[in-house]
Every structure is written in structure tokens, then in C-alpha cells.
Specification:
The strands form four sheets. A six-stranded parallel sheet has the order 2-1-3-4-5-10, with helices on both faces. Strands 6-9 form a two-stranded parallel sheet. The protein has a domain of 194 residues: NAD(P)-binding Rossmann-like Domain (Rossmann fold, 3-Layer(aba) Sandwich). The protein is globular, with a radius of gyration of 19 Å. Helix content is 41%, strand content 15%. The mean pLDDT is 94. The protein contains nine helices and twelve strands. It is α/β, with parallel strands linked by helices and 283 residues long.
């Protein structure tokens, strides 16, 4: 069995690479061999290598800028079209940001997306490209994702608090923080079942088992920094809640029902994660 991983450079891509390298599959990781924004390049690569499953994390970011949005949509468009012609099943990583307009406490898979910002619309556009072109496809939506690498909710918060800056965190904005390693675990569990013949196509969602407010998550990080003597900044509540945020809590039920994947808590090992970040980012 051949698995194609499109992204091995981002924190999420690196976590997926680490987990997939331990699996008994042929792993394809093209670097400069494919221009993901060029259909002919994508089509030729798929024709030559014939992957059974394509995991696409290109352009995934909670705060994707214009360039990342173009990569997100462009890669999804070309993969959907190429898979329709050459074969192969795509597994696209998406985001809670497809929601927001409904202001619900928890979003189900069947809820209609209503993104409020350009990033959410980009994710939703990418999702719809597969449904329009293919019968067999998978989309996995994720919530807040963090790791020790740069530019995520944990690393940005730690950097600010250690540098003496103020960090805004709302008590009425809720999510279920998930580590990049836990996301990789879930993806591999799905992959193993798909390659064994499971026919569970369509939309899925995954977040950790513990829901918390943004304020609670930041307070947990501040408490660990206090213990290590690295806390210099302070936490402040925003004067006004960002209307673009909404809730980041997703229902895991369909993933549990179809793949038997159980969510894990983000609290376990958080202290170790923070200390690892401190080691990797000395003052």
C-alpha cells in the first residue's frame, strides 16, 4: 500500500510524517517533484506513483494568510481532479473555522458551514471540491491544534508570557485543544482502517476530550511558567469578543461511531510539552 503525504514541512506535516514512518506502508513524500498548484504536475505524479491514499495538509493553519489560502484551495482542487482521473483516495485536513455564523456551543458534522472570515471560507471551498468531483473522499476537521513548533496557540502564548507581554484570552470563547501528535494518531488510525477496506467516506471531526475556555487554556500555561520561573507577562480579558471566532468545539461522534477513535485529553503531558518548548526556545 502506498500513502502520499503532501506536506512534511509544517508542524502538522512533520507530526504526520513521524507517525507514518512507523507504519508498514510505502510512504511517498515529494518535495520539489510536484507543483501542487499545477494540475499537470499533480496528475503526472499520481499517474507515475499510483498512491492508494493521499493525505493533504497543505495550507492548513488556524491563521492562514493569502498565500496559504491559495495553497489550501489550489492543492485541493488539483488533487480532487487528479484523483478522479488517476485514482487514489484523498484525506483532506480541514478546520473548525468552516463554522462560526451559527454561534453554537458544539458543531456536529451535519451542521451547515457558515464561515465568517476568509480563512474559514477557504477551508469550506477546499472541502466542497472533493464532494463535487469524487465518490470516495475523506475530510477531517480539526479544532485548536498546538505543538512545540512556532505559530500556534501554545507557542505564541508561551512566547508572549515569557517576554513580559499581555495576552488577551476570552472566558466566553471555547475550544478543545489538540496536540499535533494526537492529530497524527487519529489520522493514522483512519488510514489503517481505510487501507484494510473500510468504506467510511465523507466528513469527520476531531478535537480532544476536554473543552475549556481560551482563558482557562492560557491560565494553565501561565501556571506552568510560574512553576519554572519563566512567567513575566500577564493575562487580560479582551474588551470585546472577536465576532469571527465563535466556538471551536466539534463533535467527535461520527469518528467514534465509524472508526472507533476515542478522544484524548490535552491536559495530560501539557507540562512536559511546555518544558520541551522552553528547551527548544532558550532566552
Amino acid at each position: 500500500m502506498k500513502i502520499l503525504l503532501t506536506d512534511t514541512h509544517s508542524p502538522l506535516g512533520q507530526a504526520l510524517l513521524h507517525e507514518l514512518e512507523r507504519q508498514p506502508y510505502t510512504l511517498l513524500c515529494p518535495s520539489n517533484e510536484v507543483d501542487w498548484l499545477d494540475f499537470e504536475s499533480v496528475s503526472v505524479y499520481l499517474q507515475q506513483h499510483q498512491p492508494d491514499l493521499i493525505i493533504n495538509a497543505l495550507g492548513w493553519s488556524e491563521w492562514a494568510d493569502v498565500q496559504w489560502q491559495q495553497l489550501l484551495i489550489g492543492s485541493a482542487r488539483n488533487l480532487a481532479k487528479a484523483c478522479a482521473q488517476q485514482g487514489g483516495i484523498p484525506l483532506q485536513l480541514s478546520s473548525y473555522r468552516v463554522f462560526g455564523g451559527e454561534q453554537k456551543d458544539c458543531y456536529e458534522v451535519g451542521d451547515r458551514p457558515s464561515p465568517l472570515g476568509v480563512v474559514g471560507r477557504a477551508f469550506w471551498d477546499a472541502e466542497r471540491l472533493y464532494d463535487a468531483s469524487l465518490d470516495k473522499w475523506l475530510v477531517l476537521r480539526l479544532g485548536w491544534v498546538f505543538g512545540v513548533q512556532a505559530n500556534n496557540r501554545l507557542s505564541n502564548t508561551l512566547q508572549a508570557l515569557r517576554s513580559g507581554e499581555s495576552v488577551e484570552a476570552g472566558s466566553d470563547y471555547f475550544g478543545a485543544p489538540t496536540t499535533v501528535l494526537d492529530v497524527a494518531r487519529v489520522v493514522v488510525a483512519m488510514v489503517r482502517q481505510m487501507l484494510c477496506g473500510a468504506n467510511n467516506w465523507g466528513l469527520y471531526q476531531y478535537v480532544s476530550s476536554d473543552v475549556c475556555s481560551e482563558l482557562e487554556f492560557v491560565q494553565e500555561l501561565a501556571a506552568i511558567l510560574q512553576e519554572t520561573g519563566d512567567l513575566k507577562g500577564r493575562i487580560v480579558e479582551p474588551a470585546e469578543q472577536d465576532a469571527l471566532q465563535g466556538s471551536a468545539v466539534l463533535s467527535n461522534q461520527r469518528l467514534l461511531d465509524n472508526f472507533g477513535v476515542k478522544p484524548r485529553t490535552w491536559r495530560q503531558g501539557l507540562g512536559e510539552t511546555v518544558r520541551l518548548w522552553l528547551e527548544k526556545n532558550p532566552v
